[in-house]
Every structure is written in structure tokens, then in C-alpha cells.
Amino acid sequence: MPLPFVLPPQAEPKISLDSRVHRSTSPANNRKPTTRGKKSAGKLAQLMQMPVDVFYEIAGHLHFQDLLHLARVSKRFRGIFMSKKSRHLWATARRNVPGVPLPDCPEQLSEPLYASLLYDRICMACGVGRCVNVDYGLRVRFCSACYKANVDDGCSLVHHDIKKQDLRVIYTLVPCKETYHKIGFHPELGPRKVDVLKNMSHDRYYGPELVVVAEWYMLHATLASADELDRFVKERREFSTRIQQWGLAMLQWMRDSHFAKEEAERLASESRKASVIAKLKEMGYFPEDFPENGKWKKHVEAPRELTANSILEEHTTSPCEPTLRGEKEKRKGCTDEPALSGDRRHYAALLAAMDARERDSMPSFSTVCTFPCVQELYDSLYKDDYASEITSEQFDAVRDTILEAAASALCLSLCNFSPRHRVGVHDLDDSVDWRLATQTRLG
Questions:
Q1: Which of 12, 200, 270, 443 is the most exposed place for a label (fewest CB within 10 A)?
Q2: Alpha-carbon distance 3 to 21, whole Å?
Q3: DSSP codes, 73-130
Q4: pLDDT, tens digit, for every residue of 177-190?
């Protein structure tokens, strides 16, 4: 009687003594039994009354994870979706996953197990949640404690009484752990091919599977014929190659998905920032008013699009509204270093047209900005567009007013201080002429 050779009995994982399942303060056998009342029909009860082809058409539009959840709703749904007849539904749901396309499911792996490895966060050994240690080549997901108990290097898992030549063959019959440093990609040849013949004792394997396969190999080596042993080795190597190649493709998919997600978040953040700035400009704010702090960046540079249904004042500007208003008032009231630095050229042109004596008696530009006529001009600009500069026509309109205000300031300084302390008057003998010139300018 020939021995079965392709798939040995499924190996059960070990539950680590350090698993969180042993830390439960209320064991299951001490809990009070819960009484279940009469179940009422839910809103989705009509799903079971619709025609089968319509039901399959609806299920064909589900996400891979949604189909996995639907298969766990009831025993009837489980019987429908876990049968081999529904394999096409799982393949369609897998193709519905957005972003980078998922690799095809190998024939040696079921689609529900594929979805469970991808989306579930439950340890396959102890059943605790929040488990992130997944290995697609080994087809397992464990918590940290159970991972250490089930995944180890080859020399630590098999019996030491097995001959070395048999161990070299046994390591090629099971898939080993694939890591990121094993991923190789050539721009012309594509990703590297898996070669299970290179599996060695220092590679990491799923312990229960390696032990079972080793026992079956030794059983075939002892009881089966040479042809049956060669057939068993060939089939197991083909199985391991396909699974290990799929695990390598999943690692590449995870890497590509990570990069694609980062790029999508970057584009969404840039688009959101541009939309917020455009909206704030409509509200009267400009880039000079934007603060530079973490709170501002958190609301403006968030990695999500600013949709038309979102309320801008509630989600973005409201937390930063006092800061924006304060920054605008601060810049508006700043006279020591005016924001409109381009306006200096108009005043510089006015000074250049004067002779040296008149130029020395004129106040600085910061003082000119305090004159009421200039303040009124700036206030009108703030209401319209704070980022604009004073045009030549606007400056010429207040030119005479600026000269009159400068003459008044000079007269006030000459009356209150000694002629020797006048600012900008270097020749004391000409002070009378300058006083007359000032009075003449005032009319």
C-alpha cells in the first residue's frame, strides 16, 4: 500500500507558557454561564431570502476583509463562503483591494487563510489579540511568546540522531522564513527566484511543521520504495517553493504598499495645505500671518484631503484662529520694521531729489510710518490686501502731507532743544535760514 506523500498531517502550534492567555485573572471555567434570550431578526435577515445569483453578485463587490467578516457571521454564511465553490468570490474580493495589487493565492493555500493572515490580529496558537508577528512564507501569525516557541532555526528543532545527509534533504522539504534582506530585484530580470535547495540549518522554520515532515520523510525512507521516496521529496519541494515564493511576493507587496501609502499621504498633505491656504486667503489671511508651530502643522498638513463636506472653520482654522488673528495684529502694529519693505524705495526716491541739507533734516522711514497720513494709507491697504505695497500714485498723493509732517516735527525739535542739539543740522550759523525755510514750508 503506497504511503501518502504530498501533505503530512497538519501540525498544531505550541502555546507558550509566557503567552498572555495564561495571565487572565478570570479563567474560563470560573466564569458564570451566560443565558441567551430569543434572538430577533436583524436588518440583514433578508439577505438569506434573496436569490443565490443576486447574493453572489453582491458578495462579488465586497472587500477582501469584508468577505472574511461576512463568512464568520453565522454557520450558514460559513458553509457558503468556506466551500470550494466560492473560491471565485474570494479571488474577486482580493482583486477589490485598492492600491498595490495583492499577489495571487497559491494553489497550496486557501483564500480564507490568505485573508486571515493578512487582516486578523489573533494568535494562531493561544488566541490572544493584537499580534503583529506574521510570516507569510511560514503561513503563521503568533504573539511574541508563541512566535519564539514555534519558530526557530533548523538545528534546534529536529532530532540530533538524524543523519546529516537526511537533514539536508529535510530542510528543503519545508519553507523557511523570508526576510527583507533576502529580497533581491534586478531591473531586467525582476525579483529573484526561490531555491529551496539552499535552505540550511541556520534558517528559521515553523517548528511543528518541520518536525512532522521530518518524521514522514524518515517513515518513507524506512518503509517506502525509492520511487515513492523520490516522489514525496519532489512534491514537497514543489510545495515549499510555491509557498516560499508567495511569501517573498508578500514581503515585496508590503514594501511597495508602504511606499505607495507614504506617497499618497504626501500628495494629500500638499493638496490639503494648498486648499487651506487658498481658503484662508479668501478669509483675509496671508502667508505672513501663518504661525510656525506644531499645532498649526497638525491641522494644516494632515495627510488627508480637504473634502467639500468638511467645515473648514471647525476642522482647521478654529483651533488656530486666535493665533492667526494675533499674528496679523502683531504685524499690522509693527512700526520698527514695517512689513511692506518695498515702500522704502518711494521714500528713498523722495530723499534723492533733495539736496544734502534738506535730506539731513528729514526723519527716518520708520518715523515716517508713524505719521497719521501714512497710518491711514496702511490701514486702507490692510482692509484690501495686506500683502500689497504702496504704489507710486498712492505715495505721490500723500507726498506733500509727509513733507508738512516732517517740517512740523523739525520745528518742534528746534523749539524744544538747543540749536546745538538739533538732529541733522550740522552748520549752526545756518539755523536761522532753516527756521525760516521751515516756516515758509508751513505757509
A1: 443
A2: 39
A3: S-HHHHHHHTSGGGHHHHHHHHHT--SSPPPPPPTTS-HHHHHHHHH----TTT--S-
A4: 876 545 554 444 44
Count CB neighbours of 424 within 10 A: 14
Helix 87-95 and helix 111-119: axis angle, to 10°?
A: 40
74 grid coordinates: 453565522
In whole angstroms, how far apart are CA 166 and each of 94, 120, 195, 232, 307? 40, 37, 18, 14, 63
**What are the pLDDT digits (tens) for 293-317?**
777 777 788 888 776 555 444 444 4
The C-alpha cell that represents 37 in the structure block: 434570550
Residue 64 binned pLDDT confidence (cut-offs 50, 70, 90): very high
HSE on the CB side for 252, CA within 13 Å? 17
Q: Is the pTM of this model over 0.85?
A: no
Beta bridge partners, 206, equal 151
DSSP calls for 224-264: S-HHHHHHHHHHHHHHHHHHHHHHHHHHHHHHHHHHHHHHH
Cα(356)–Cα(379) distance, rounded to whole angstroms?
Answer: 32
Q: Are 164 and 216 in contact (CB under 8 A)?
A: no
Q: Over the stretch 359-382, which tens digit does the pLDDT of each residue have? A: 777 887 777 777 887 777 777 765
Neighbours of 112 (CB within 10 A): 19
